[in-house]
Amino acid sequence: MPGPFHAKLHTSFQDLIASRESFLLTGxxxxxxxxxxxxxxxxxxxxxxxxxxxxxxxDPLGHPFDFLAEKAPFSFATADSPLPKxxxxxxxxxSQLSRTGALAPRxxxxxxxxxxxxxxxxxxxGDGSVCYVDSKAAATGALVRRLYxxxxxxxxxxxxxxxxxxxxxxxxxxxxxxxxxEVLSMAAELVGMGVDSSRIYDAIxxxxxxxxxxxxxxxxxxxxxxxxxxxxxxxxDKTLNERCGHISFDTDLVIDPLRSLLGVEVVAIxxxxxxxxxxxxxxxxGDVDVQRIAATFxxxxxxxxxxxxxxxxxxxxxxxxxxxxxxxxxxxx
Length: 333
Fold this sequence. Notes:
Elements: H1 7-19, E1 22-27, H2 33-48, E2 52-57, E3 74-76, E4 88-92, H3 103-109, E5 113-118, E6 130-133, H4 140-151, H5 157-170, H6 181-192, H7 197-205, H8 212-221, E7 224-226, E8 231-236, H9 238-246, H10 252-259, E9 266-272, E10 278-284, H11 290-295, E11 300-302, E12 305-310, H12 314-331
Parallel strand pairs: 1-2, 1-4, 2-3, 4-5, 5-6, 8-9
Antiparallel strand pairs: 7-8, 9-10, 10-12, 11-12
Helix pairs in contact: 2-4, 2-5, 4-5, 5-6
């Protein structure tokens, strides 16, 4: 069932939508399925309410999600591209302007109201002056679905597909522990509306670059089992990370084979960029709270799925992360 909301924030978000006329929807860099699906659904809700709305992301649609271009008019901002007029900028699936990359200073300087729709822990303490947040929700798209009900607007098929995409991406196609009664009930409702789940699956997973298998094998070959097999770590250096980016390789494909290993409690993918920053993505299958680990590095997420950025290259990030995971595992004993 839907989780509790902070009543004041909840009411003011409804008032914000009702009282403003132009909206810019955006999300984090390299937007994932939850972010993009939620944007798709919110675009159609605001249009149905008679609002002017545009979607402008820091990065273009990735290949697995380019089918969404048929559902909503996605765009991305270059350094000198003009932004449409907007009274409100809505951050979806993130709550910090810094997550929007090159868009951040332009949004800060716009004078527009910053609003947040998100399901990550601590999102109500981000940069949004008005928030619609529930950290117990499985996906940001689920929150947008709730907004449709509250405004009494029927869900069109394009929006239903966006919500479904959000749900399946953030629940691992209903395999993760956040697959609750609301998720399954909502998924059944969406399929009943005409969402073709197999078509969405094929669009995401059955159009991969021919080099995908080779890159997956290369990433898996670099895995290391640490902390007596409790931590599975995959360090991806600059060169391999560049190759991953060239073919739009989703490094989440590396996670499940490692999380399936007996004894592994945390999987960590460390991707080194050419500026020396290491992007860390963590998943847990036991009681370890990876969100708390990520928070020590200035990141965030959920108890069982979180990420952060660590400066200093792999040589700095690997021992630092291993020590934090060791401490977190010890705290669960």
